[in-house]
What we know:
This protein is α/β, with parallel strands linked by helices. The protein is built from 8 helices and 41 strands. Uridine-diphosphate-N-acetylglucosamine (UD1) is lined by residues 9-12, 52, 54, 74, 77-80, 82-83, 101-103, 139-140, 152, 154, 168-171, 197-199, 225.
Amino acid sequence: MEDFTAVILAAGEGTRMKSDTPKVLHKVCGQPILTYIIQAARKAGAQKIVVVVGKGADKVKEHYAGEDIEFVLQREQKGTGHALMQAEDAVKGSSQIVVLCGDMPLVTAESIEGMVRFHQEQRAACTVMTAIVEDPTGYGRIIKKGEKVLDIREHKDATLEEREIKEINSGFYCFDTSLVFSALSKVKNDNVQGEYYLTDVVKILNQEGKQVVAFQLDDPNELQGINDRKQLAQVQKLMQRKIIEGWMEKGVTFINPDTCVVDRHVQIGRDTTIYPGVILEGNTQIGEGCTIIGPCRIKDTIIGDFCEIVMSQIDDCQLDENVKVGPYSNLRPGCKLSSNVKVGDFVELKNTKVGEGTKIPHLSYVGDAILGKKINIGAGVIFVNYDGYKKHQTVVEDEAFIGCNSNLVAPVTVKAGSFVAAGSTITKEVPKDSLAIARARQENKLGWVLKRRNKIEGGTKDNGK
Ligand code: UD1
Ligand code: CA
């Protein structure tokens, strides 16, 4: 296949999104719309990527800073033809260009590559990617004679008869570079929208005796564009379905896929089962044979094999094999849980390392701590890590036992094998293999209640009369 440059038109205002974010930076399955098109163009073999930007240009450029993409600015949005004209200098040196719209993220690399191959086989001046759709309202209609494309008529400019045509213009094309720019110089803006239509080059090329053909896609879903939030949701749904079906093909079970969110870069191992209401975001990786029960949100987290996560939130953590979390726990950034750790219900963990086989089964807060192996943290234990100014670290060594409802006031260390009695507030180091009790001693006053009652009631008890 001959080299080509991809020109992505992304300068449109995106007014209907009603947003401060440029339309092409809105996310679908965790990734900006424009990134999908850039990736598809690269995968299809584009040697160079040129993006035409307008509204929100700075934000778009900033997002892709450092990437091998050339940006050209279209100061005023005077139509798709005018947009492509701005890229003339940037595409010098490639004899073919592929024009793509920045708001159609479902198009596949295979379709783009297919169009380029077809263009070359047909020795065409222009190939238009098209599809047959049930409801062509709003799209440009393909006007054909046999296999030849004679013209493209915008919906707003079309006659009632032309509006019956169901073959629509995708807005994706392959062009012979020199021919398209010479044709563009002849395009006028004498249409309903007062814009310079790129689609008008089709008619001009025909007048010059050049060949324009259509490359028809089987799946019109690929051409679903995003102009407003409703279409954003429709595309999200189609993309989500595609991603989840990809994981099903690789051996992952989804009990009810329509209720799950799985971002584009998430990885899931085989024989893992995902229950309804699970959200997997960012660069999350789930191992093999895991069970994830929703509602659950897991973000930028690496989870080993055979883990069980139930109704919890985990953000930016790492879990080794056989770890159990939940129900109802919150693992905040910076936690590393070794294999066979159990974090039970209503536990909050932050910036904490937990050694193999350690258990934190109920109602605890553990922050800024290093926990060794096979420790038991009793119910309601609080790691007091903050003095109002600074965070401090707590170290609990292997096989220590921390009794229920204790406070460990950081910085403090509990040495290996030691035992903290329930209800203690620990403020200094607990030596190895020792018992620490730091609570008031219990005193029993025998018969105290009886004496008090006699005094107040004079020996008779008022039963609430
Ligand atoms: C365009 C096509 C139409 C096709 C439809 C497919 C024209 C005249 N019409 O219509 O035949 O069916 O796409 O979606 O081309 N853009 C700029 N600068 C501008 C105007 C637009 O960069 O001045 C960009 C937009 O950001 C967008 C793309 O070009 O990515 C298409 O623009 P849009 O206004 O959505 O075109 P449509 O009117 O939908
Ligand atoms: Ca338009």
